Amino acid sequence: MNTLNVNTLKLITGRIDALPLSTVWLLERLAEARGKQELFTRQSPQVLKVLKEHALIESAVSSNRIEGIEIARDRLKTVLFGRPLLKDRNEEEVRGYRQALDRIHQRGAKISVSLETILELHRLSHAGSGDAGTFKIRDVDIIERYPDGSQRVRFKSVSAKRTPGAVKGLVELWNGCLLERRVPPLVALAAFNLDFLCIHPFRDGNGRVSRLLLLLQCYHLGLEVGRYISLERHIEQNKERYYETLEESSRGWHEGKHDPWPYVNYLLFILAGAYREFEERVGQVKAPRGGKTELIETAVASQEGAFTVTNLETACPGVSRDMIRRVLKNLQREGRVECLGRGPGAQWGRKEGTTHKRG
Questions:
Q1: Residue 146 burial (CB < 10 Å; 0-12/13-18/19+)?
Q2: Is the entire prediction scored with pTM above 0.90?
């Protein structure tokens, strides 16, 4: 069977007259958000600068953490922004992902979506690996492992022999979709992402490259929210749904009988959620104030029920614990939060009837 002709972009092109209502609704939300994008990016340069730094950290951490790759919190800024000797492969991969993000954010749509770009993004994000920047040379199935030690083949990816041709065909279809506009570009973006994951072109690192391509293709479509809000964090926060929709939409992919809309709608939902957060964060700032203070206050406002300083550290990577404690003390003096215990692990809670202040 010719994998180049049996994939989501081909499938959707043949069914474009029957977009699900849920997809239409998400596309309308994103069109409205993009229309307001310029207005928000002209506001509060100080906060935008902090948001960009924050998003860079979150993206490098979250995208790797989805794949089970973590580094010590006290090494974050050193690994991401310093020039130290790195301790292990995890640190190499986190820094490599950050370097790939830098390249995309700096050049945006000037970087073409091509075989060369895909291999380069893998080389950067899979830094230190012997096969970084090369397609798989052996067939690789997607295996799901369970806590009891059992496992199952969740998906049989495209064979190693046919992988380069499949990726080339996918790139050609993407570029054709942008020229012809027979498919809504955002739908084509999500379809490309699904096909890339089903082809599974690398031995390892496919998920990370797919998220880098998502960011790059957003720039090609004029969507800049990923510069300020981490798309990877939003995916990590909805990780279970990510795997559910990916499995649901990949079922029958090789035969061209799959249902792409669960995964397409999932990615559109992620983008809409990122825009909503962006508007909320920028809209909260009406006077000059510390950008990191705004981030911490927003994190406090988003907590459900009692929370700890550690919870806020997770929500605000790159912000020091001392800074978080200072902001909490200020909020406590203003009567907006209360400490519910004692000691380093004490819980905090918002006071009844208080909301996040603006200004």
A1: exposed
A2: no
